[in-house]
Amino acid sequence: MPNERLRSVMQAGGWTYATLAEATGVDPKSVARWVNRDRTPHRATAVRTAETLGEDVFALWPSLRRGRATRAVSPDLAALYEQRADVPVSAFVSLFQQAHERIDVLVYAAVFLHEAYPRLNDLLRERAAEGCAVRVAVGDADSTNVQQRGREERFGHGIESRCRLAVMHYRPLVGTPGVEVRTHETTLYNSLYRADGEMLVNAHVWGVNAYGAPVWHLRRNGDGGLFDTYAASFDAVWTTARPVEGN
Fold it and tell me: Measured between alpha carbons, how far is 244 from 107 in angstroms, rounded to an integer?
Protein backbone atom coordinates (compact mmCIF):
# COMPACT_ATOMS: atom_id res chain seq x y z
CA MET A 1 0.00 0.00 0.00
CA PRO A 2 1.50 3.36 -1.01
CA ASN A 3 2.28 6.19 1.40
CA GLU A 4 -0.04 8.81 -0.10
CA ARG A 5 0.98 11.50 2.41
CA LEU A 6 4.65 11.19 1.45
CA ARG A 7 3.76 11.05 -2.24
CA SER A 8 1.70 14.24 -2.09
CA VAL A 9 4.36 16.12 -0.09
CA MET A 10 7.02 15.16 -2.61
CA GLN A 11 4.84 16.16 -5.55
CA ALA A 12 3.96 19.50 -3.96
CA GLY A 13 7.63 20.25 -3.38
CA GLY A 14 8.84 19.03 -6.76
CA TRP A 15 10.86 16.19 -5.22
CA THR A 16 11.81 13.11 -7.22
CA TYR A 17 13.12 9.84 -5.84
CA ALA A 18 16.60 10.85 -6.98
CA THR A 19 16.62 14.39 -5.54
CA LEU A 20 15.19 13.33 -2.17
CA ALA A 21 17.64 10.43 -2.01
CA GLU A 22 20.56 12.79 -2.66
CA ALA A 23 19.33 15.26 -0.04
CA THR A 24 18.95 12.59 2.65
CA GLY A 25 21.90 10.35 1.80
CA VAL A 26 20.02 7.21 0.77
CA ASP A 27 19.48 5.18 -2.39
CA PRO A 28 16.64 6.28 -4.74
CA LYS A 29 15.29 2.73 -4.51
CA SER A 30 14.82 3.25 -0.77
CA VAL A 31 12.75 6.37 -1.40
CA ALA A 32 10.66 4.46 -3.95
CA ARG A 33 9.95 1.80 -1.34
CA TRP A 34 8.93 4.45 1.20
CA VAL A 35 6.40 5.85 -1.28
CA ASN A 36 5.12 2.80 -3.13
CA ARG A 37 5.29 0.13 -0.42
CA ASP A 38 4.84 2.39 2.63
CA ARG A 39 8.14 1.20 4.08
CA THR A 40 9.29 3.07 7.17
CA PRO A 41 12.96 4.18 7.18
CA HIS A 42 15.23 3.96 10.20
CA ARG A 43 14.36 6.59 12.79
CA ALA A 44 17.37 8.85 12.14
CA THR A 45 16.74 8.72 8.38
CA ALA A 46 13.03 9.38 8.87
CA VAL A 47 13.72 12.44 11.03
CA ARG A 48 16.29 13.76 8.55
CA THR A 49 13.88 13.24 5.64
CA ALA A 50 10.99 14.95 7.43
CA GLU A 51 13.27 17.88 8.21
CA THR A 52 14.27 18.08 4.53
CA LEU A 53 10.62 18.09 3.44
CA GLY A 54 9.53 20.48 6.19
CA GLU A 55 7.05 17.95 7.55
CA ASP A 56 6.30 16.30 10.88
CA VAL A 57 8.00 12.91 10.95
CA PHE A 58 5.02 11.24 12.66
CA ALA A 59 2.65 12.59 10.02
CA LEU A 60 4.72 10.92 7.31
CA TRP A 61 5.30 7.67 9.23
CA PRO A 62 2.71 7.20 12.02
CA SER A 63 4.19 3.80 12.85
CA LEU A 64 7.13 5.57 14.48
CA ARG A 65 4.81 6.56 17.32
CA ARG A 66 4.46 2.95 18.40
CA GLY A 67 6.63 1.42 21.06
CA ARG A 68 8.20 2.57 24.31
CA ALA A 69 11.29 4.09 22.70
CA THR A 70 9.20 6.26 20.37
CA ARG A 71 7.12 7.70 23.22
CA ALA A 72 10.34 8.75 24.92
CA VAL A 73 11.39 10.95 21.99
CA SER A 74 11.19 14.63 22.88
CA PRO A 75 8.54 16.59 20.95
CA ASP A 76 11.20 19.31 20.61
CA LEU A 77 13.36 17.06 18.42
CA ALA A 78 13.06 18.08 14.76
CA ALA A 79 16.07 16.27 13.29
CA LEU A 80 19.08 14.19 14.27
CA TYR A 81 22.43 14.09 12.49
CA GLU A 82 25.05 11.45 13.26
CA GLN A 83 27.85 14.01 13.07
CA ARG A 84 28.25 17.74 12.62
CA ALA A 85 30.04 17.16 9.33
CA ASP A 86 26.66 16.02 7.93
CA VAL A 87 25.10 19.42 8.65
CA PRO A 88 25.76 21.94 5.85
CA VAL A 89 26.99 25.35 6.95
CA SER A 90 23.97 26.74 5.12
CA ALA A 91 21.80 25.21 7.88
CA PHE A 92 23.58 27.36 10.49
CA VAL A 93 23.40 30.44 8.27
CA SER A 94 19.70 29.91 7.54
CA LEU A 95 19.03 29.47 11.25
CA PHE A 96 20.60 32.84 12.07
CA GLN A 97 19.04 34.61 9.09
CA GLN A 98 15.55 33.71 10.32
CA ALA A 99 16.12 35.02 13.85
CA HIS A 100 14.13 38.07 14.95
CA GLU A 101 14.49 38.13 18.73
CA ARG A 102 17.59 36.22 19.84
CA ILE A 103 20.76 34.54 18.60
CA ASP A 104 22.88 32.64 21.13
CA VAL A 105 26.14 30.87 20.33
CA LEU A 106 28.00 28.82 22.94
CA VAL A 107 31.16 27.08 21.69
CA TYR A 108 34.81 26.58 22.39
CA ALA A 109 35.80 27.86 18.95
CA ALA A 110 33.62 26.72 15.98
CA VAL A 111 35.88 28.57 13.57
CA PHE A 112 34.33 26.51 10.76
CA LEU A 113 31.50 29.06 10.65
CA HIS A 114 33.69 32.02 9.74
CA GLU A 115 35.87 29.92 7.46
CA ALA A 116 32.92 28.59 5.46
CA TYR A 117 30.82 31.77 5.67
CA PRO A 118 33.03 34.89 5.81
CA ARG A 119 29.92 37.14 6.02
CA LEU A 120 28.97 35.78 9.44
CA ASN A 121 29.84 39.00 11.28
CA ASP A 122 27.89 41.04 8.74
CA LEU A 123 24.91 38.73 9.20
CA LEU A 124 25.04 39.13 12.99
CA ARG A 125 25.29 42.91 12.65
CA GLU A 126 22.28 42.92 10.32
CA ARG A 127 20.19 40.85 12.69
CA ALA A 128 21.20 43.08 15.64
CA ALA A 129 20.27 46.18 13.66
CA GLU A 130 16.79 44.67 13.25
CA GLY A 131 16.43 44.33 17.02
CA CYS A 132 17.75 40.80 17.51
CA ALA A 133 19.83 40.31 20.69
CA VAL A 134 23.06 38.49 19.81
CA ARG A 135 25.18 36.74 22.45
CA VAL A 136 28.35 34.82 21.57
CA ALA A 137 30.41 32.89 24.12
CA VAL A 138 33.69 31.25 23.06
CA GLY A 139 36.23 29.33 25.09
CA ASP A 140 38.98 31.05 27.08
CA ALA A 141 42.17 29.64 25.57
CA ASP A 142 43.99 29.95 28.89
CA SER A 143 41.41 28.01 30.90
CA THR A 144 42.21 24.56 32.23
CA ASN A 145 39.00 23.13 30.78
CA VAL A 146 39.90 24.18 27.24
CA GLN A 147 43.40 22.78 27.65
CA GLN A 148 42.00 19.52 29.02
CA ARG A 149 39.68 19.23 26.02
CA GLY A 150 42.70 19.55 23.76
CA ARG A 151 44.38 16.63 25.50
CA GLU A 152 41.23 14.54 25.31
CA GLU A 153 40.86 15.18 21.58
CA ARG A 154 44.59 14.59 21.06
CA PHE A 155 44.83 18.05 19.46
CA GLY A 156 47.19 19.37 22.08
CA HIS A 157 47.41 23.14 21.87
CA GLY A 158 45.36 23.16 18.67
CA ILE A 159 42.09 23.87 20.43
CA GLU A 160 43.69 26.75 22.34
CA SER A 161 44.79 28.26 19.03
CA ARG A 162 41.29 27.84 17.63
CA CYS A 163 39.79 29.58 20.67
CA ARG A 164 42.12 32.54 20.16
CA LEU A 165 41.24 32.58 16.47
CA ALA A 166 37.53 32.56 17.33
CA VAL A 167 38.00 35.62 19.54
CA MET A 168 39.82 37.34 16.67
CA HIS A 169 36.90 36.54 14.36
CA TYR A 170 34.27 37.92 16.75
CA ARG A 171 36.23 40.86 18.21
CA PRO A 172 35.19 43.26 15.38
CA LEU A 173 31.64 42.87 16.70
CA VAL A 174 32.56 44.27 20.12
CA GLY A 175 30.78 47.58 20.61
CA THR A 176 28.09 46.80 18.04
CA PRO A 177 24.68 47.70 19.55
CA GLY A 178 22.77 44.54 20.37
CA VAL A 179 25.83 42.25 20.18
CA GLU A 180 27.78 40.86 23.14
CA VAL A 181 30.88 38.68 22.92
CA ARG A 182 32.31 36.88 25.95
CA THR A 183 34.79 34.13 26.83
CA HIS A 184 33.97 31.29 29.22
CA GLU A 185 35.97 28.73 31.20
CA THR A 186 33.32 26.06 31.62
CA THR A 187 33.51 22.38 30.81
CA LEU A 188 31.50 22.42 27.60
CA TYR A 189 29.27 19.39 27.17
CA ASN A 190 27.49 20.71 24.07
CA SER A 191 27.98 23.51 21.58
CA LEU A 192 24.76 25.48 21.18
CA TYR A 193 23.53 27.53 18.21
CA ARG A 194 20.17 29.14 18.96
CA ALA A 195 17.92 31.37 16.89
CA ASP A 196 14.63 32.27 18.59
CA GLY A 197 12.76 28.98 19.11
CA GLU A 198 15.17 26.76 17.17
CA MET A 199 18.53 25.38 18.21
CA LEU A 200 21.29 23.17 16.84
CA VAL A 201 22.97 21.20 19.63
CA ASN A 202 26.37 19.68 18.83
CA ALA A 203 27.03 17.03 21.48
CA HIS A 204 30.58 16.61 22.73
CA VAL A 205 31.91 13.05 22.89
CA TRP A 206 35.08 12.21 24.82
CA GLY A 207 38.06 11.94 22.48
CA VAL A 208 36.06 12.98 19.40
CA ASN A 209 36.36 16.30 17.62
CA ALA A 210 33.12 18.27 17.49
CA TYR A 211 32.73 17.76 13.73
CA GLY A 212 32.48 13.99 14.32
CA ALA A 213 29.91 14.21 17.14
CA PRO A 214 26.10 14.16 16.80
CA VAL A 215 23.89 17.19 16.27
CA TRP A 216 20.21 17.45 17.10
CA HIS A 217 17.96 20.16 15.74
CA LEU A 218 15.46 21.31 18.34
CA ARG A 219 12.27 23.34 17.95
CA ARG A 220 10.66 24.66 21.10
CA ASN A 221 7.34 22.90 21.64
CA GLY A 222 6.03 24.18 24.98
CA ASP A 223 7.48 24.98 28.39
CA GLY A 224 9.95 22.76 30.21
CA GLY A 225 11.05 20.67 27.26
CA LEU A 226 14.46 19.72 25.92
CA PHE A 227 14.84 23.08 24.20
CA ASP A 228 14.37 24.95 27.48
CA THR A 229 16.91 22.68 29.18
CA TYR A 230 19.64 23.71 26.75
CA ALA A 231 18.53 27.35 26.72
CA ALA A 232 18.88 27.44 30.51
CA SER A 233 22.36 25.92 30.27
CA PHE A 234 23.41 28.73 27.94
CA ASP A 235 22.16 31.34 30.40
CA ALA A 236 24.04 29.65 33.25
CA VAL A 237 27.33 29.74 31.33
CA TRP A 238 26.71 33.29 30.14
CA THR A 239 26.53 34.63 33.68
CA THR A 240 30.04 33.31 34.37
CA ALA A 241 31.60 34.52 31.11
CA ARG A 242 33.75 37.64 30.75
CA PRO A 243 33.26 40.32 28.09
CA VAL A 244 35.79 40.47 25.27
CA GLU A 245 37.51 43.82 24.97
CA GLY A 246 37.68 45.63 21.66
CA ASN A 247 40.79 46.39 19.66
Answer: 15
